[in-house]
Structures are given as structure tokens and as C-alpha cells.
Amino acid sequence: MLIIKLSTIDSTNAFLKQWVQQTKAHNAIAVRTGYQTHGRGRMGSKWHSERDLNLLCSVYIGEMSFDNNAIFEMNKRVCLAILDTLVPQNIPALQIKWPNDILSAEKKIGGVLVEPILRGKEVTAVVIGCGINVNQLEFPNLPCASSLRKATGKSQDIEALFESLATNIEATVRASSTDNSRYLDALFGLNQACSFERLDGTSFSATIVGVADDGKLKVKHADGSTELFEEKKLVFTAFANCQ
Length: 243
Fold this sequence. Notes:
- The strands form two sheets. Strands 1, 2, 3, 4, 5, 6, 7 and 8 form an eight-stranded mixed beta sheet that branches. Strands 12-11-10-9-13 form a five-stranded antiparallel beta sheet, with no helix packed on it.
- Helix 2 (71-86) packs across helix 4.
- The protein has two domains: 2-186, 2-Layer Sandwich (BirA Bifunctional Protein, domain 2), CATH 3.30.930; 193-242, SH3 type barrels.
- The protein has helices at 12-23, 71-86, 148-152, 158-173, 180-186, and strands at residues 2-9, 28-36, 55-61, 66-67, 94-97, 101-104, 107-119, 122-132, 193-198, 203-211, 217-220, 226-229, 234-236.
- 35% of the residues are buried.
- It has five helices and 13 strands.
- The chain starts with a strand and ends in a 7-residue tail after the last strand.
- By secondary structure, the chain is of the alpha+beta class.
- It is globular, with a radius of gyration of 18 Å.
């Protein structure tokens, strides 16, 4: 895997997509930066990070072939790769919050952005953006955010985390199957009643019972009926200030 390190860039995902388009020389590339001027989360949301305190990176995995409908499978695999990276660091109470957040003790410490590269309807490569709060201690106006240092009380080696994460992402994404049972075991709120808010502002409580193949969250209401939600169509009330 080719490793690229940059001081400042607009977006590691944008950089990687341009690099791959121009060079086409490698089938696996990882890039890390100390600061992003235009860091992005899913659905156009912004990712804010203090300079040189966190892990901001993207990984390109090429020479693949899968259907565009399997993008959320890639998302699940990347979330599991992040857990594989953080578990050896003794980060407490790690969970995956649907659709793309990583939690420690129910505080957000990271997020994932998977962008497919298509040839017709076939996905031939993916660019995977990851942001993990590592050594940052202050998160103004983000009461549900945390970092590895806050969770453990110890400063973390960002470079070592980056190299481990890049390796784990490539191995997990190229695996022959997704460990769905492990994903569900790590899913925040599974089989628990959670408070939600719809886009129209109405609140309700329901039990998370799973995630559909297309990435929609499946919840069960008190009357036994089930409902599926696309991302950004539903807000976890407890994380309303950290979406």
C-alpha cells in the first residue's frame, strides 16, 4: 500500500480521488493529513478537527467488483476495521452508531465516509474517509463528542493508529464476506428502546431491531409494527447536537 502524508489538504477523500484519476498506479493507497480545510462527513455534513490532534485519513481500495447496492456493506466493514484498530488500544465500550459513527462509552469518537468509484453500475473501487478524535480534549458545543485521549487518559500515537487502520481497512474491505453478527453485536441501541426525532420535529420511542441490506435502520414500535428509516431522516435524540 502506498502511504501519503500531508500537512494540510482540503479533503483527503477529494485528494485521493484526484490522485487515482491522474496516476492509476496503485490498487491501495492511504493518505493522512494533520488538517482538512473542507473535511466532510456523510450527506454533506462537515467534520471539524483541531490541527494535528486527530486522525484524518482516507484509503483507496481498487481492483474490486461489487454491485452499487452493496455500498452499505462496505460501510459496515470499515466500521468493523476501526474497531479492530481501537480494541488493542483498550478504548472502552466501543460501539457502532448507525449509520457511520464510532462511539466510546456512548460518546462519538469517529466517523466514516465511503464513496464508490463506478464503472457503469459496477463498483470497481472505493475511497474511504475516516475521522477519529485522538488527542483533542475540547469539543465546544459538541457535548456528546469525545476522543481516545479523553476515554483513556493517555496520549495516543496518531501515526501508529493510521498505519494499523489502513491495513485493517484493506483486509476487511477485501474480505470475502461481512461479519454481520459482529456488526450487530456492536450496534448501539440494538434491542433497546431509543428516543428519536423525525425530520418534522415529532419525537417517538422505538426499539432498534436491525439494519436492512440497503442500510436503512429498522425499528419496532410499541404496537409491534416495524418501520425503516434512511439516514438523515431520523435523529437519535441523545446525539442531536453531534449529528
